[in-house]
Amino acid sequence: MTFSIHGQAVSRGIAIGRAVLVASSRIDVAHYFIGPEQVREELRRLRQARDAVIAEIEQVQRGLQETASMEAHPELTALLDVHLMLLQDVQLQEGVTHFVQERHYNAEWALTSQLELVAKQFDEMEDPYLRERKADLEQITERLLRSMSGAAPAIMAPTSSQEGERAKGSHGTEDPLVLVAHDLSPADTLQFKRSVFVGFATDVGGKTSHTAIVARSMDIPAVVGARGASQLVRQDDWVVIDGDAGVLIVNPSDIVLAEYGFKQRQGEVERQRLARIKNTPAVTLDGERIELLANIEQPSDTLPALAVSAVGVGLFRTEFLFMGRPSGKLPDEDEQYAAYCAAVEGMHGLPVTIRSVDIGADKPLNRSSRDEHLNPALGLRAIRWSLSEPAMFLTQLRAVLRAAAHGKVNLLIPMLAHLREVQQVKALLAKAREQLDARAAVYGPLRLGAMIEIPAAALALRLFLKHFDFFSIGTNDLIQYTLAIDRVDESVTHLYDPLHPAVLQLVATTIADCRAQGKAVSVCGEMAGDPSMTRLLLGLGLRSFSMHPSQILAVKQQILRADTRKLRAWAQQVIESEDPAALMAN
Ligand code: PEP
Ligand code: MG
Questions:
Q1: Three-class SS of residue 29?
Q2: Final residue of a domain: which of 87, 120, 149?
């Protein structure tokens, strides 16, 4: 049956492929494809976990026997029996083995996929007693996952080099794969970046959630906030992801498929057309040179950045080095230094802006820490967290300082609101230099920048101006905090409005104030990579844009067609208008 699910359009284009479902679990589960040579090992891990859990349960049973409390706890005794029975169930084992052998899922993924499958069958059962066994199944799956977690490798998706080995659908052919999940942690998404998936859809998420941002950087069509997708879509269903309209079409008819195939080819032609301006300097019709920088999440993103002729990195989101680490340990100084050096060297002498870690809110260190705080977006996030963990922050500062010996490095501080925070950052920077001096380590000079992403910082910019060499406007958070809407909550996504007069006012005055003081200013939020906003930002005086490499050419095309002299008065009208969106169309 054909049906469609509407969500948020977060990354353009059309993807057509077979659905690969990633089940969610209370435990952070690794999802990755294995090579054929790893099948035995994965099955061994499964056996080992099963034996360990069986041994655990038997030990509890023995304990009950020894204390003669079996009669006293008949329910517990029965429960343990059911768990043992499920663990030894041949059909369940065969199901999991099938996912490993045939589809090349890693053991954890195979387990949770089998759980989803059987859980659905339990839901459909008439007998309430049997229906309730679903909870038992969930519990033993959880125990098995826990038992395996000690040895679990990092979350990894199939890399393009493993493409030949990727999972085959039950149809037996190698079709393009589309990922469908309830949610993806930003760390998961980053791993999928190196994968063969041609598109993805999630049940939850807003337009500028970090999952959406990473989707955009992967440059694959994606829809988030497609409620119920992971429940309604079945493994191997054919799906179309329309990343332009924010729709997921499941089991499309031949006519619909042909239409989307046509749209897909049109998109490809458009891409090829844009590729022609790759080496054209980003200069407006009236001769204004515009700086187009790249946002990156990992050092290897410098390759796509250079491929579209970015003139530097305007935002390296270092938190992705810190998140979802299987060991639970934060990266040490040498690991960070190696990553920052790789980015600096990867840009071959072009400047790299490294942002200090922005952990918190929708970028927790790990999934379980996500709900710890009632209001994480207003909590201990970004520089607030860094200042509360000085040893961690000093480690990062030392690594950045050392990387600065290898090229032009800027350090950018996120979420500043108080002058006191600026003073603390500067004191810690001085301390990091002292620590490096003490061990005669080599380090380089840094330009220091502040992110303007809290309305208080935009309104009180004068407090910050003399302390920083440059400023970068984080419109994603600036919009979130100005309009008081959670950027990851799809239920308020209709209120997320980059064209709200209050947002435009803050962006406009920040650009104007920085320019008046001769301070470099850039925009590194998603607004910078939205071609429909380029003319407005140029009209407001912006000359430096930082965005995902995938958006650079579309923005450049707008720049090449723009005349900033004509845009100035128009931009002023837009920001003063009661209905900026209406004027934007002119
Ligand atoms: C922003 O807030 O606009 C920004 C660039 O930072 P992030 O999206 O990583 O919060
Ligand atoms: Mg931000």
A1: coil
A2: 149
Q: What is the pLDDT of residues 11-30, one digit of tens each?
A: 889 999 999 887 655 556 77
Q: What is the pLDDT of residues 99-116, one digit of tens each?
A: 999 989 889 889 888 887
Q: Per the domain annotation, does 31 fall within a domain?
A: no
CA of 475 to the centre of ligand 1 (A): 7
To 5 degrees, how large is the angle CA 356–CA 360–CA 365? 90
Angle between helices 90-101 and 107-123 (to 10 degrees): 130
- Asked whether residue 198 falls in the same domain as residue 129, the answer is no
Q: Is residue 222 part of a domain?
A: yes
Distance 477 CA to ligand 1 centre (A): 6
CA 315 to ligand 1 center in whole angstroms: 9
Q: Name the catalytic one among 104, 406, 514, 524.
A: 524
Structural domain contains residue 490: yes
Q: Is 210 a catalytic residue?
A: yes
**Confidence band, pLDDT 50/70/90 cuts, at residue 585:** confident
Q: Is 73 a catalytic residue?
A: no
Sign of the Cα pseudo-torsion (319, 550, 244, 506, in order): positive
Residue in 31, 83, 210, 548 annotated catalytic:
210
